[in-house]
Specification:
mainly alpha, rod-shaped
Length: about 70
């Protein structure tokens, strides 16, 4: 009976560890696809805004020199 209880306890521990590991994997994927995607999106928006700002500032400075 002690062996059966010990085996049951070890099996429960292993199953709990596996479930916790799956939770960690799920949290990692949530971070990668949700939070990291937001950070990359913000960086792309900032880069596009800087590109447009530099593009239009060059046009304005070139048109002032000609006049």
């Amino acid at each position: 009976m002690k062996k059966l209880g010990l085996i049951t306890l070890i099996s429960a521990f292993i199953m709990t560890a596996n479930l916790y590991c799956f939770d960690l994997i799920e949290d990692t994927f949530d971070f990668i696809f949700d939070d990291l995607a937001k950070v990359i999106g913000i960086a792309v928006i900032i880069a596009a805004a800087l590109f447009l700002f530099k593009k239009y500032s060059k046009k304005d400075s070139n048109s002032n020199d000609r006049e």
